[in-house]
What does this fold into?
Amino acid sequence: ETVIRCRAAVAWAVGKSLSVEEIEVAPPKAHEVRVKIVATGICHTDEHVLEGNFPEVEFPVIVGHEGAGIVESIGEGVTSVKPGDKVILFGLPQCGECSFCLNPDSNYCLKSHISSSPTGLMADGTTRFTCKGKAIHHFVGTSTFIEYTVVHETAAAKIDSAAPLEKVCLIGCGFSTGYGAALQTAKVKAGSTCAVFGLGGVGLSVVMGCKAAGASRIIAIDINKDKFAKAKEMGATECINPKDFKKPIHEVLTEMTGEGVDYSFEVIGRTETMTEALASCHYNYGVSVIVGVPPAAQKISFDPMLLFSGRTWKGSVFGGEDFFSSVFILNFLSSSFCSLALVPSLGTTEKNLAPSSLLPPIRYL
Ligand SMILES: NC(=O)c1ccc[n+]([C@@H]2O[C@H](COP(=O)([O-])OP(=O)(O)OC[C@H]3O[C@@H](n4cnc5c(N)ncnc54)[C@H](O)[C@@H]3O)[C@@H](O)[C@H]2O)c1
Ligand SMILES: [Zn+2]
Ligand SMILES: [Zn+2]
It folds into this structure.
């Protein structure tokens, strides 16, 4: 059980770009697992953190939370995985014992890094990463922009040894978040009409979820028209660019559908598009889901009549899913899933975050 020296992309402070550093990774303590990261996606949430737009993150920190790799060593008491196992890491694992985990309607866990404070530390209140003599924080219990990370055993789900890590890492956040928002949070019905605002990795996964649910119309919305070809490949039936219209997009959608869509999803992270998405769904039985991370410290003011008439406005964290069951589903679907070459495009995020010499981020388009 030795300290590993390897490289990581460290975020030293808000607003600073990542810097690739040599780092010491301590051995896993009891109920912890040290994992060699083989592939990591880049989620826009990582960028929100770097911009200071994500609550309660302590710097310096190693972000990245969409990773897959191979177990290098295990701490005392770990039975779920062994060295050599392939795993996907999850930012919102389930301990299976707390009041949230015991409630079948919940996918939060009181012991996760998202719910517990202070954040960025392991269960014993310390970190496993040091760089230049300084302790570096973990991010949502995963920290994947690093060659070796340490996670709690519940955050590492063992997967089939044949699984392609560079694809299944997306199950760690983007895919599960989007797919789950459609199937688990909104519970999209067959034959319905859906609108998806934002066609990054998460939005494209919402499109896939709506398609899997049997939606008959999936209207994909983005200000970047380069996203439309991929959205159509994933199941969008129509693509629209708000820049092509003078009127607000909720009016455009209402005209396109008669009474508004049955389900709308905001997958960008802007307060204006959150309200637009709400106003786009049917005034009585429409359901609108906020998936994009709201910018820190911004408030929304909206006409409460939008809700009074019957609409439902919901949020969805990590797709509202229990990750271990989604891995189960994905194992079940694995062959078709992998051949679909699920491909979130990373847009601006990739440019800013790719720790070039470090890890091969998943690239699409
Ligand atoms: N709820 C969760 O658990 C969860 C999990 C993962 C990511 N997220 C959040 O979901 C959001 C999307 O993540 P991503 O990785 O797919 O991001 P991304 O940057 O890859 O994609 C965002 C897309 O939105 C488009 N866009 C930007 N402004 C727009 C506008 N005004 N109108 C229409 N389209 C616009 C961009 O062109 C881009 O295609 C982020 O806010 C991210 O933090 C939430
Ligand atoms: Zn994410
Ligand atoms: Zn729990």
Remarks:
- Residues 43, 45, 65-66, 173 surround zinc ion (ligand 2) (CB under 6 Å).
- DSSP finds eleven helices and 15 strands in the chain.
- Confidence is low (pLDDT under 50) at residues 331-365.
